[in-house]
Design goal:
It is built from two helices and four strands. The chain has 70 residues and is an alpha+beta fold.
């Protein structure tokens, strides 16, 4: 969970969502995307209990992030 929280906390508003997805891949995190411009990134080693929620704008820039550890 600490690795996911550190990852989520490192994301800044204005970062590009494509770059974040690549970083997620590099860290062996899973991500899923919905049609409402949101991406959920989870650490499979915690069985999805450690999750970073990312909202982004139409131009692909991050607008908000939040972290949840169930």
């Amino acid at each position: 969970p600490k690795q996911m929280q550190k990852f989520c906390d490192s994301i800044e508003k204005g970062d590009l969502i494509q770059d974040i997805k690549k970083q997620a891949d590099d860290n062996n995190f899973e991500y899923s995307e919905n049609i409402q411009s949101k991406v959920l990134i989870s650490d499979t080693r915690t069985m999805g209990r450690s999750t970073c929620f990312i909202s982004y704008k139409d131009d692909g820039q991050v607008s908000d992030t939040s972290y949840m550890n169930d």
